[in-house]
UniProtKB/TrEMBL annotation:
GO MF term (any one): serine-type endopeptidase activity
Protein's UniProt name: S26 family signal peptidase
Organism this protein belongs to: Mycolicibacterium psychrotolerans
Lineage, top ranks: Bacteria, Bacillati, Actinomycetota, Actinomycetes, Mycobacteriales
GO BP terms, alphabetized: signal peptide processing
CDD domains linked to this entry: S26_SPase_I
Superkingdom field: Bacteria
UniProt xrefs under SUPFAM superfamilies: LexA/Signal peptidase
Sections of the chain in a coiled coil: none
Length: 94
């Protein structure tokens, strides 16, 4: 999620509310269940059995980026809303 987040940055995320375009959300990686992804919400689509959203990378052209272009839309019920981020210093210093 560079440039929004850098390696070592911290965040607080809670399971609450419906996704809104532009929000940061955390959710299990649909392609690798052992990790979580942090992505920006693109489009949101309400469905009969819940809401799904498009997970968009801030730097879509970076090598190795994965987002909804690879794994499709994400169920909102499995995601957490990012409420707060903490930027670390240049060498991991707070």
């Amino acid at each position: 999620m560079r440039p929004t987040l850098q390696p070592g940055d911290g965040l607080l995320a809670v399971r609450c509310g419906a996704p809104k375009t532009g929000q940061l959300r955390v959710f299990p990686d649909p392609l690798k269940s052992s990790r979580y992804l942090i992505k920006r919400v693109g489009n949101v689509r309400p469905l009969q059995d819940g809401t799904i959203f498009e997970a968009v990378s801030d730097n879509a052209g970076a090598p190795g980026v994965t987002d909804s272009r690879q794994f499709g839309w994400v169920p909102a019920a499995r995601s957490y809303r990012v409420l707060w981020t903490v930027r670390t210093g240049p060498r991991g210093e707070g």
